[in-house]
Amino acid sequence: MVVSYDGTAYCGFQIQPRDHTVQQELERAIYVLTGERVKVISSGRTDAGVHAKAQVINFLTECIIPIDRWCFAVNTRLPRDIVVHKASEAPLNFHSRHHAKRKTYRYTIQRSKIPDVFYRHTRFHHPTRLDLSEMQNGLSHLVGEHDFSAFCSARTPVGSHVRTIYEATMEFIAEPSSGDGQAGVIHIYITGNGFLYNMVRIIVGTLLQIGQGKRSGVEMNQILLSGDRNKAGPTAMAHGLTLWEVSY
Amino acid sequence: MVVSYDGTAYCGFQIQPRDHTVQQELERAIYVLTGERVKVISSGRTDAGVHAKAQVINFLTECIIPIDRWCFAVNTRLPRDIVVHKASEAPLNFHSRHHAKRKTYRYTIQRSKIPDVFYRHTRFHHPTRLDLSEMQNGLSHLVGEHDFSAFCSARTPVGSHVRTIYEATMEFIAEPSSGDGQAGVIHIYITGNGFLYNMVRIIVGTLLQIGQGKRSGVEMNQILLSGDRNKAGPTAMAHGLTLWEVSY
């Protein structure tokens, strides 16, 4: 199933003993519908406060509800901040994480003096000026196959830190009423074959330092080569991040 | 001050004995800032669940905080779903309701099979087809000076029901991935010199019946002439409505 959720109220995707998670709500809704205790597998966990436009999940059921009825049937049993967009039957060996070929994340920054009340849960508010072309420069160094050790949290499990970034783009939509043309919304899209723990948020935290003039765009390359988490910027706030797309 | 708010968590703008309201939060924030118990006057109350992009309020204070500091000072004392965008000094006789010349409301409909989780509090979800050109036709009959008795709640205080609608427009933004071009977002903007209780929501409720093919667009004119609330459609859900702009 392809699922979107507003992560604001959740302690992330994956079930944890005492916390309210998206996985828990999905498994509960499927249980109410089918009477079966299934285990939902996702294309990857998302952190507390992180959203998904199109998370992909799979599970095994013996339920005989026709596939074209699933979407509606599950949605009526889910809270309003989780919505199933699509349901389809998959081969028995399908695994939404292992078989994912490309994933895209979007990080959104509200660049304006005053925050926008309607996007307080989905955009990171940045009140001061940002040098967009220098950020764009920084972003360009990420494309390709690299060891992303400098951009992963210490909590990342041991294993290869080599990932391939296929695309890293930035879009700026200016606020029509903005005086200096500096106010607006910045969307950063990063597509890769996989992501390490906190990788997108550390990249964005570093890009924000570049935008603020604390670092230059080319430093992104030096940080990458260093492989040192301490050289990169802070982990950007979770609520600006959305799992945008997963391809198989 | 020009104020925007997400009305989801509030029982409307105006203070009521036992309910949580936007006015209460504004007066509390101003009290915390100044120590003064002011009475906030708005350009008009909004109902429970209705939002504002640019509500205008006024109040009387003896506080000596410079006017360019007010915005930031009040915002740090407000909950995150209410944000002050602008503060300015006004003549002593200024009254944000009495002196309002034009008000614009926007009503937003999410026209798609599956609701959009990120706009569940700000768009009315309509899963089935709507005839947009017939709705457009219906909307056009509202422009001008009319007695809007057919489009006001029985709870409207006694008095003239004549109002002037200056503009009534509809905008459709198609969903790029929509197969039949029918999915997307519909914004309805209505600008007038004033609005009766529930007027915009009853207009939209009637427009939805027109869009669904239950009535034709020209019936809007007949309903208007009848002056009979029972001839019009139901009151549309509050959460799609936003007080968009107030001019003086």
3D architecture notes:
- The structure is a homodimer of 248-residue chains.
- With 248 residues, chain A is α+β, with helices and mostly antiparallel strands.
- Chain A contains five helices and ten strands, in the order βαββαβββαβββααβ.
- In chain A, strands 1, 2, 3, 4, 5, 6, 7, 8, 9 and 10 form a ten-stranded mixed beta sheet that branches.
- In chain A, helix 3 crosses helix 4.
- The radius of gyration of chain A is 19 Å and the shape is globular.
- Chains A and B meet through strand 4 of A and strand 4 of B.
Structural class of chain A: alpha+beta
Largest interface: A-B, 19 and 19 residues
Apparent shape of chain A:
globular
Q: Looking at CATH, which topology of the largest domain in chain A would you report?
A: Alpha-Beta Plaits
Count, helices of chain A: 5
SSE arrangement of chain A, N to C: EHEEHEEEHEEEHHE
From the structure provided, what is the oligomeric state, counting identical versus distinct chains? homodimer
The tally of structural domains of chain A comes to 2
Q: Judging by the overall fold, what is the CATH architecture of the largest domain in chain A? A: 2-Layer Sandwich
Q: What Rg of chain A do the Cα atoms give?
A: 19 Å
- Point out poorly predicted stretches of chain A: none
By DSSP, the count of extended strands of chain A is 10
What fraction of residues of chain A sit in β-strands? Answer: 25-35%
Helix content class of chain A: 10-25%
Distance between the termini of chain A: 13 Å
What kind of sheet is the major sheet of chain A? 10 strands, mixed
Query: What is the level 1 CATH name of the largest domain in chain A?
Result: Alpha Beta
What is the mean predicted local confidence, pLDDT of chain A?
95
What is the CATH homology-level superfamily of the largest domain in chain A?
Pseudouridine synthase I, catalytic domain, C-terminal subdomain
